[in-house]
């Protein structure tokens, strides 16, 4: 395709790209509703099925994350070669069915198998979605666009907490899975029949390679980019803390502050949805604003936010009043979400066009194995270990200890920012 054809296609994409972005935000919202609803249901599931904190941490973390991360690679290879819209639609249908089936679980094994199914389905969401958005939005708007897409994370957690908390109190945890799972099938049909698959390279007037690079070629390409290595390390550590805390915070409020799930669903849901969503959008917007003048600030914004969030996170666990704890916690929730949009945006900008889906999947693999897989599990293990000394407050101390990793996160984003400009300039280099 020549340059005039690319420019014509780019112009025709303007009226539809905002619709595509809105639909993908809704898809990602359902992604996180179905992923995170388990967090507010854990205490009820624990009581009915007789599970330990370690087992619950495994269910909310590794049982999902391992399959999510592993299956993300072949699905991303497919996305770099095939129709990304159709992949998202099929994946959405699969994870919605598996979420609904979670409500039928009779033991740990049943629930683990359902969570594995949810993980496999959700692996087909973000890599093709990141690639689609990158073809609709140019590099100077990409962090903002991916920030808007990533608002699906706090919205999904918020609605999952709202719905899960209310239905759990009124009808039990099993009905909560049914209610959030079934509507995803209708959304899958909307994606399939209303979204348009764009020309690759559309937003940058770039011609796409005829064939997609091999997986190993993409790996070697990324390993030669120091900025990506720091992005992956910083994102993984941020996710380790973030997923762990978000998964266990409702249980902490139940055990240490005797709050009910309806109350937690309302207040914690609002915090995750409003400050959390504002943090993701603001992080992407500020990264684009400051990064346009100095590329180092694409990642330094996340480093600064991580440092500022640390003391407020620690204070949260010391407070004896649950409402003050929730109010203070809104600050680290806002700041700790700054990294999400710019990390994925810079990864998309660092690679060639047909590497984008795989590059996103590789980043998600690292983030989810270390973050979502190990974070909730590690907090659960430490909570069990501390229980003989601290009783019901063991979870409070476990969350506080793991929440102190913010400085390590900031180091990687700072170091990644220092080498980002040079690596962006080499993005077209195939060596």
3D structure, described in words:
The chain has 431 residues and is mostly helical. It has a single domain (3-203, 215-425), classed as MFS general substrate transporter like domains (Growth Hormone, Chain: A). The chain has helices at 3-49, 53-60, 62-79, 84-102, 108-122, 126-136, 139-150, 152-170, 173-181, 183-194, 215-223, 226-257, 261-291, 297-318, 322-335, 339-350, 356-390, 394-402, 406-425. Helix 8 (152-170) crosses helix 9 and helix 16 packs antiparallel against helix 17 (356-390). The relative contact order is 0.16.
Write the layout of secondary structure elements.
Elements: H1 3-49, H2 53-60, H3 62-79, H4 84-102, H5 108-122, H6 126-136, H7 139-150, H8 152-170, H9 173-181, H10 183-194, H11 215-223, H12 226-257, H13 261-291, H14 297-318, H15 322-335, H16 339-350, H17 356-390, H18 394-402, H19 406-425
Give a short summary of the structure.
This protein is mainly α and 431 residues long.
Terminal-residue CA separation: 24 Å
Q: CATH homologous superfamily, by name?
A: MFS general substrate transporter like domains
Strand coverage percent: under 5%
* Radius of gyration of CA atoms, rounded to a whole number: 21 Å
Q: Note the overall shape.
A: globular
Please state the second-level CATH architecture.
Answer: Up-down Bundle
| Backbone structural class | mainly alpha
Task: Count the DSSP helices.
Answer: 19
Task: Predict the CATH topology.
Answer: Growth Hormone, Chain: A
